[in-house]
Amino acid sequence: MRLLRLSFAVCAAALVVAGCPKPSAPTEDAGVTAPEPDAGTDAGLGPASFTLQYALADAGMESIPLVGEEEGRPLIDPTSTLEVRSSLALRNYRIRLFDEVDRAMVSDDAAEESPNGLLYRISLPTPLKTGHKYTLVIDAQTGTSMTDSQGREVADVRIPFQVSGEKEKPPPPTKKQKRRQR
Q1: pLDDT-flagged residues of the chain (< 70)
Q2: Residue 33 belongs to a domain
Q3: Alpha carbons 7 and 13: distance in angstroms, whole number
Q4: 3-state class of 70 per DSSP?
Q5: How many other CB atoms sit within 10 Å of the CB of residue 112?
Q6: Which segment of the chain is annotated as a signal peptide (predicted)?
Q7: Does 169 map to a domain?
Q8: Residue 37 belongs to a domain
Q9: For a surface tag, which of 59, 96, 106, 148 has the fewest beta carbons within 10 Å of its beta carbon?
């Protein structure tokens, strides 16, 4: 055991002394040129950007402005279909819709990924409730960050909005008859 410890210490010391070789400084005429970004690829584009749309009653789509919580929530019409689009493909992402008490909404989701970006559809079993606030969150599935197709980290996105109309009041609780104990 003593020999094992001694050999480990000698190896560690050798690595520290040897270190890593210094990188060579590039010369002006190295004969290597950087490839130009191809106009057909997304190499020249900036980080991924997002749009959020919802389905209107007349089968059209309407965009929801991307604003922060402090700027107020945009109003939308009641809908049961939302679409998120990104300008670049994403890796390690998840998209969730939360109600005003931060509960994840039940939905049937479908994602279509392509080199040109992501199309993520959220289909809700019932339309969003009038007057209620919701937040769409795009964040990392695992770990601390998601990345785009270029390997760049993409910051988490929170898109708050509110459904137009008066807030629906919950139905009153039904009265239960108390049984007398005999």
Answers
A1: 1-46, 68-70, 177-178, 180-182
A2: no
A3: 10
A4: helix
A5: 10
A6: 1-18
A7: no
A8: no
A9: 59
